[in-house]
TrEMBL record:
Keywords: Signal. This is Phosphate ABC transporter substrate-binding protein. Residues 30-290 form the PBP domain. Gene3D superfamilies: Periplasmic binding protein-like II. PROSITE patterns: PROKAR_LIPOPROTEIN (PS51257). Residues 1-23 form the signal peptide. InterPro entries: PBP_domain (IPR024370), Phosphate_ABC_transporter (IPR050811). It comes from Coprobacter secundus subsp. similis.
């Protein structure tokens, strides 16, 4: 018995060593491709419903692909991209020169792709009879120069204006500061509801409220033509400052966004840092494709790479 043990000991030792080597050797990690793998992305919370639809269709088309979205403020979405926590971000602005330089220094050369044109909608309570407003009056409300409804509409019986946003770091707030207020600070009385749906709920309950929100959140989901808005609130008609009469005012319908007659519009971008041209690039290509752009069209925004059909309708003010 002792002899047999000694005789087989070298073989047993070799087998043990081989087992140890095998156990400690991990298989090579699978690299993602344009249609497979798993990635995290960041997206402005304003576009969560649209991006989620894009992800759902993309994953059903390519079962080997998995996309995990982080719906955050625009500031957070870009910060995650700069830190290389994600390789794709959905925003309403391109990168600054400093941000591009920071990514280039990491050999993460960013590419910016326009995917849509969106509108900023102004919403009020359904009991508020005054739904026409000029951009200059919006500016004065945002900066605190106008605080009461009767300063705009002398016959109004409403009181102090309650200004409501989604998030203090959102793209909507940045648009209000940069494009409407022209760099002037916002009134300290503004309220942040943390989400676009929260803005809608707040305005629906408060007669004095005016909400500033992404237009893609106010569509009537049962209307496939995108020619009506949510029945929970009233969408205001907005007049540009260089237009003589309030009668020439517009709501954020797709046609008016496309023609540029609605004065509060912005672009939507995908910013991607993907040196290997893997899944982030594949998803960007999909969103820019005919199928991806149709999702944007149905959501009420204007596709960047697809023509839209403009329909004549009567808009009751």
């Amino acid at each position: 018995m002792i002899f047999r043990l000694k005789r087989w000991m070298p073989l047993v030792a070799v087998m043990c060593v081989a087992g140890i080597v095998s156990c400690n050797t991990s298989p090579k990690e699978k690299q993602d491709t344009p249609t497979s793998g798993v990635i995290r992305i960041s997206a402005d919370e304003t576009f969560a419903p649209i991006i989620q639809q894009e992800i759902d269709v993309f994953e059903s088309t390519y079962p080997d692909a998995g996309i995990v979205p982080e719906y955050v403020s625009e500031v957070e979405a870009i910060t995650m991209l700069i830190r290389d926590s994600v390789r794709l971000a959905v925003t309403t602005r391109s990168l600054t020169k400093e941000e591009e330089a920071a990514l280039n220094s990491k050999k993460l050369f960013p590419k910016t792709v326009k995917i849509a044109t969106d509108g900023i909608a102004l919403i009020i309570n359904k009991q508020n009879p005054d739904s026409l407003i000029r951009v200059s009056d919006i500016r004065k409300i945002l900066t605190g120069e106008i605080t009461d409804w009767n300063q705009i509409y002398p016959k109004s019986n409403l009181g102090k204006i309650q200004l409501v946003f989604d998030n203090a770091n959102s793209s909507t707030v940045r648009f209000a500061i940069d494009s409407i207020c022209q760099g002037k600070p916002l009134s300290p009385d503004l309220r942040a509801q943390k989400s676009n749906s929260g803005v809608i709920d707040y305005v629906a309950q408060d007669q004095n409220a005016i909400g500033v929100i992404g237009a893609s959140w106010i569509g009537n989901k049962s209307d496939t033509t995108n020619l009506s808005f949510s029945d929970k609130i009233t969408v205001m008609n907005v007049t540009a400052d260089d237009v003589a009469t309030l009668a020439n005012s517009y709501k954020p319908y797709q046609a008016y966004l496309a023609m540029g007659t609605y004065p509060l519009t912005r672009n939507v971008y995908i910013i991607v840092t993907d040196p290997r041209s893997g899944l982030p690039t594949g998803f960007t290509t999909f969103v820019s494709s005919d199928k991806g752009q149709r999702i944007i069209l149905k959501a009420g925004m204007v596709p960047a790479t697809q023509a839209i059909r403009i329909v004549n309708v009567r808009d009751e003010l």
